[in-house]
Amino acid sequence: MRDRLKSVSGKKTLITGAASGIGRATAIAAARAGAEVVLTDIDAEGLADTVEAIGREGGKVLVSRALDISDYEAVRAFAQEVHDRHGSLDVVMNVAGVSAWGTVENLEHRHWRRLIDVNLMGPIHVIETFVPPMVRAGRGGALVNVSSAAGLLAFPWHAPYSASKFGLRGVSEVLRFDLERHGITVHLVVPGAVNTGLVQTVEIAGVDREDPRIQRYTKLFQKHAASPERVAQQILRGIERNRFLVHTSFEVRFGYWWARKFAWPYEFVMRRANDKFNSFLG
Ligand code: NAI
């Protein structure tokens, strides 16, 4: 078995969601660590800002392209372009994602569709177009998938988000063993609260975001949230130390352990949390 990849330094590294939040911070941190980055995001303007920030520090951006990861043909064409110009990659990081919350009676079909398309099919499109050339190249590498605490635990109102993030966790757990024989390590990042644009853009079906109670909870969330820069460091360390589960906060590490050991108290807390959330609907 070949030596596993221990650092992104000098490695061709794809990062999706690079225009904002965790993806942007990870792109900057990876470039600082010596990676040659390939960046993408649906937000062309934000992506250009990230490319400029990396350029200012003397980092190397091989390619950057604005595209929608839920569009398979767009991802395939991008992969073709990257492979034609630079050959197969060493590290692939699926960071881009969106969020929407709500109870089943408030959620619309478009919410379910979008979360599965972007958060689950998006990473699948990236995996199916970028990982096989890595396998064929035989140099090993790393695959990082950003799931969520909601990919481990059943938070209220998270059904579509958890459908996508548990799905990505399933893909990752299988590929972890499948890709081992090719020297490709797999890392599942499970952040708790992270202070990024997502906090403001999350759509809550059936709830007025301007409601002072919701604003209060948003502020509380932000106060306890990790910075995207810290999460970026944890992702790079997760690759270095070959961690499958990359935790970014003690609460999630503890919560997941606790839920597995103590089923009844976990169920009690989740019932109470659901009651609390439902009080916002009236
Ligand atoms: P963010 O909103 O700052 O960044 C997400 C990026 O994904 C944005 O730049 C956005 O333009 C891009 N994106 C959205 N849809 C896209 C599409 N169809 N195609 C290509 N790019 C698209 O949010 P954040 O927090 O940095 O999110 C990164 C990842 O972390 C997501 O997968 C999210 O689910 C996950 N996460 C975030 C948490 C948080 O508290 N912020 C907690 C747990 C997980």
Automatic annotation (TrEMBL):
Keyword Oxidoreductase recorded: yes
What GO MF annotations does this protein's record show?
A: oxidoreductase activity
UniProt keywords (A-Z) are: Oxidoreductase
**Is Oxidoreductase given among the entry's keywords?**
yes
| A Pfam family | adh_short
- SUPFAM superfamilies listed in its UniProt record: NAD(P)-binding Rossmann-fold domains (SSF51735)
**Gene Ontology annotations for the cellular component aspect, listed alphabetically:** membrane
Q: Which family does it belong to?
A: Belongs to the short-chain dehydrogenases/reductases (SDR) family.
| Protein name, entry field | SDR family oxidoreductase
Species whose genome carries this gene: Nocardia pulmonis
Q: Recall the taxonomic lineage recorded for the source organism.
A: Bacteria, Bacillati, Actinomycetota, Actinomycetes, Mycobacteriales
